[in-house]
Amino acid sequence: MAEAEAIHVRPPEPIVITVCRAHNLRGSKGDAVNVMVKVEFNEKVLGETPKVDCSPDVPAEFNFSTTLNCTYEDPLALDEIAHKPVVLTVIEVMPKERRQKEEKTSTLGQCTLDLLPLVKGETNYRYTLVINPTPGSPLEAIPAENPRPELDVMLSVNEALLDEQQIKDGNLLTITVESLFSPPDSWQLTGQQFYYSAALPVPCNSEKEMLVVFPGGQLKLGADKELPNKQKKWAVPGSAVGNSIFIPDSVIASDPVEDEDGDFKDKGDRDHRHLSESEKMRITWNTERRCYLENAAVKGFQDSVAKTRYWPIEIFRFPQPAGGKGKKDEEGTISYHGVAFLNLAPLLYPGVKRIRGAFKVLPYTDHLLHEKSKRKAGIGEEALRLSLNQLNRSSASPAPKKAGKEKAEAEKKDAKKGASNTLKSDTGSEIDGQVPVNVEGQQYADSKSYIMIDICLTRPLVPKRPPEELARRVAELIPPRPAFPKRTDSADKAVEDYHCQIAGVASLLLEEFREMFGEDQGTGEPQTNEVMEGRRQKLMYHLNSSGKYFSFKEQLKHSVIKIVREKYLKTTNFDDRQQLQTFLSELYVYLVDQMHQSLNKVLQIEDQPPIPPPLTTNAQLKHFAREAEVNKNFDLATKYYQERIIREESNADNWFDFGTFCLYTNNVSKAEECFHKCISINQRHMDGLMLNGVVCTLAERNEAAETFFEAATNVDPKNILAWTMLGLFYDTISNDIGAEMAYLEANKLNIGQAASIARDEEQEKEKKEKEKAERAEKDGEATDTPQVEGSIVPPLSAGKSLTPSRPGSQLKEPARGTPVVGEAEAQEELPPREPTPIPAMSIYMQAVDWLLEVKAVPFTEQALAHELLTTPSGKTPAYHIATARVKLQKEEYEEAEQSLNDALQVEHQNPDGWALMGHVKYLNGDNHAARECYQRTLSFVTDATETHSIYLRLASIYLQDGEYQQAKQTFLMACKKSPSCVSWLGVGIACYRLGELGEAEDALMEANILNNSDPEVWGYLSLVCLRTARKVEAEQSYKHAVKLQLQDAALLNEIHAEQKKATFGNPEF
């Protein structure tokens, strides 16, 4: 009893269908006509309106209402309302003739009423429906320019069929089966006729599934072209005929092949699809079936897709019933049983509501069905029974029926036949462990058949977090901070007012001083301390006795109070006297400092020299830091990175670069701090968001990492790198569907970018060809002056005669509207398909390049693994070089050398490969081999990606080998491209060894300007000064070198030897 009370079923909700009026009607015997409207749903008559007279100028006012109950006890009631129309049949009533017992009726037209708005939560909805004429109706004779016959209808319910929670939890699945292209060649329009059906299961709750069939496929010739905006048909039209079987205002959308989700969308399949859709036969359905899914069905559907991904749709044909008594055995049997597996995994992508594509049709076998979708048996037998029943019902006439008994008997016969007949299909069965063979179905695979299907949901199964929420979550993880500490305008204004008051009081004091002691200033008496102290005492006595001292104090009082309130935020009394004294001391110090600043501005006699701007730019400091990083001088690199931050603390890029350096030195906590600072300054910093995600992934904070990666894709949805990084993250946490979604989006953007580049290059090429043709035309006109007027060659023909003929240009000329020979024939043929552009670099290699730059080694190795799996040719030279760069960062030199050997065997002229090989040899101490690699790299026509380190290391090898002239030239090459302290120091050392002391000093001075804290530069400057007999400069340079802790023992010994030889240069002597 308690259980019965707990289960509450909502009582039926009546749906009121009101037929208001009809416009622009005419009858078979003139404009005046007597009409009525019959209302049907699911082949049941709901009611008939009264008979009303009307004419084209006078509408028929029906104002008739009937009800359709929506019962909630039946779980499929809402599903029926969603996909079945209300059929409105307009019937003309003829006047009775003599000796006629009943009135004659004639059907004028029909229209269908869609109940879908009620399923979406509407309570009132108005329609103005076009009445479609039935065959032979007088409405067919209405001229096209005249107004079309229309019917005004209104839907209403007292309460919404679904409450807000049901609408939120439920979903509406719309399945559109369009056409099957490239069917088996044995199918013909002549001979025995067949029905073509498609069927698939749809969940109706968490446990059960219902079968959805599309039995109305029609075999059409390739020459029978379809209109661009194809209207969708009702899956169950009921008694509707003619154009009423189409859903009003519902057309099939056509998407670019690149945006499809199915099969046959690769470059190699485009020609097959073009041929199949333009010339070959096809099976056309163009039918839409809506399925209402309650909450349990939505969850069951989502779980099934997550487990199997593939959803089967079975395709078969069966013979049309013969008119005679023969061939009864063939009725109710199917043939050419095929199956297409719809990959519904994209529906589990965040925010995805629709998939559409061409899905490959395969021969049906139970083994294949179980392998792909984990289903044990197919649905062919049940689909055949439902298809026959539906076809028998839809073939009925919309006019009033009289053969009710005949129909009932036919239905009983069909039921018996469906129960008795066995399914004759060559699906096969497994015998002796052999995989069954479907001979007829194999023709689908041989013909490369595919079926176009569109599946749409009203709400995504996995909602996508909106950009606002992602931005809020990023702000919660890393609160945005201002570029500088907060200072309110009122506090600055208070200090500014204090400065103004100080300046005013100082001016008044000067006037008092001049009045009292102005005459004494011109006598020329010596200004001793006693005289000045006496004047001060007289001035103080005068100010106190005259009351001006207190006046000045009152003048300053208000500005001091504002500083206390606005800057120190002190507005209440102090409870502790010690705190009061501490605050007063602090306030006094601050006021005195501000007073001095104000007085320095007012009483300034000479302008102070401006602070000189820094000699190095932000970009130079970054270059110096990278140079120190390559030379493994991490302390110096840290100094440069920190100097950049000190100069521009509000620059997010400075924090990001320092963070990547910390990531390289394996200081992950410091790197995370830097990336947080980067995002706090700029919440939309793309690289900062992605590296925050990388750091969180390394720390196994996956939820925060997902937030950062998703935020990056929302900041720039067209960024290939952001989607690739999101896919790599999903791979890390084993989210296969999320990774698939991210990689698909990245590949789509990559192909689109390649297409854009190709178009730009083509336009640039056409522009140059056009300019060339114009120049040639002008040259021809200039040389061919004796022409008869009117015989000038047209520009286009001139261009044709002077420009070499190319297939590409000939194909493009008709598109520009240029008249050519045989234009009519060319217009009949479809233009050739443009070739699909091939991206210059895969999404994974783009990610690898960026990850190597930011030193994120774990993600780099993961991206390289994907590149290896997705590249048909296997390991490419770019892959080997990227692997070598990873090994270099990990200091695994043997593996790096092996990868570079593999790369150089394929591309022996790759400058990057030889440069990296030189670095490996140099770091291993093999200077001779490194020298040969560096020299070969610089001898190539194409420069390596990074040449600065090549110049520095090659020049240092020259120095070690005593080839000072070569070292000088190589160091100068480095200075020319990107000067630094190290490069100029190398020039100075080489010049010093060559005895070019003047050039050596100039180079060392340049190095000192770029970095005045390098002890080696000061040491060589000391040597130069010792050689040129400059004692003071030599001692100063030596002092700086010792102060900066010069560690080079050989250089120190050389300096000491020169000092003993010159007998100066060391203050200790």
From TrEMBL:
Q: Does the keyword Zinc apply?
A: no
- Name of this chain's protein: Cilia- and flagella-associated protein 70
Quote the SUPFAM superfamilies the UniProt record gives: TPR-like (SSF48452)
What ranges does the record list as Basic and acidic residues composition bias?
403-417, 758-781
Q: Does the keyword Repeat apply?
A: yes
Q: Which UniProt keywords apply?
A: Coiled coil, Repeat, TPR repeat
Coiled-coil segments, which residues? Answer: 879-910
Record-linked Pfam families? TPR_8 (PF13181)
